[in-house]
Amino acid sequence: MTDTATPAPTIPASVVELDGVEVQPGFSLIKYADLPRPTAFAFDPSGRMYVTSQDGNVYSLTDENQDGRADGVAIFASGFVFPLGIAIRPSTGEVYVSHQGVISILADADQDGKTDGERILAGDLPFGEHQNDNLKFGPDGLLYVGVGSTCNACADSNPLSGTILRFNVDTGEREIYATGLRNPYDIAFHPDTGELFATDNGRDDLGMDAPFEELNQIVQGGNYGYPNCWDAGEQAGCENTIPAVAFFEPHSSADGLVFYNGQSFPATYHGNAFVSIFGSWLKPNVQTGIQRVQLTSNGNTYSAETSWFVRFPPGVMPLPVTFGPDEALYTGDYINGVVYRISYGIP
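The structure corresponding to this sequence follows.
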């Protein structure tokens, strides 16, 4: 009997529109839009993309001809201070914006593409060196938001600092869901299990080689160690804290987070997490890009294998990431004001 070799998978043709970028074989990267300093993304059910910007605006983008490039860009709302998060409530279509110390709820009752009403869900969140970050609705219909510490490494006097909060948006009730997180920039729910994960960035006063940036599996009541515990949590006083499931280069700023739950990428990507590596203001020559995290369940926790999905050239600093209804991965270059679309095969 003659052994038959397994044929190698066919790699589709692709298009790459950024000099110096490295993408995985078969993937295309094209410019979706020019947009000032994007910080967070959300798509509504119609496929409209909402983007928060450091300039204080919330933009809406459309791709009417579905060519993978925005052909309509408008300001949906404005006047926010450092908006870092945005989410669409599935049941109402309302837009939730996380900006400095505040979570606002925006409506567009007349459907003219501009907000015509704002309510405040929370207006007393602590901020300082960090603030409230991105926010997501969970499978339970509740709203989750990361709140960064007000300092580099301190015992915050406000118990809301360095946490993940959970809100019932109908009643306004909130609770501290998890603690010990210095700056949980983004959160995401695993598409198969519904488990919550969050990125987190370590303190800046331990030199250039520590601590690692993190991806954490978040459990209710969990303490993730900040400010006194980091990395594997082996320091004195780290008892009853939960170490991260994946680590990234110290001071590389692991920020945007999303899981893949589509059919367009190869099957091995299902359930993988994608983390944007923004880069550093402190440490030179940090590689920026998007890390792929393959998680393996180990009972109540996970082990992880990390690899580069995209490596950006020097000067490109990706911050937000999300998947669109077209199953393409979108990321925003905060420094150069560009939104990129990454898809498998020809876009």
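The CA atoms of residues 104 and 222 lie 27 Å apart.
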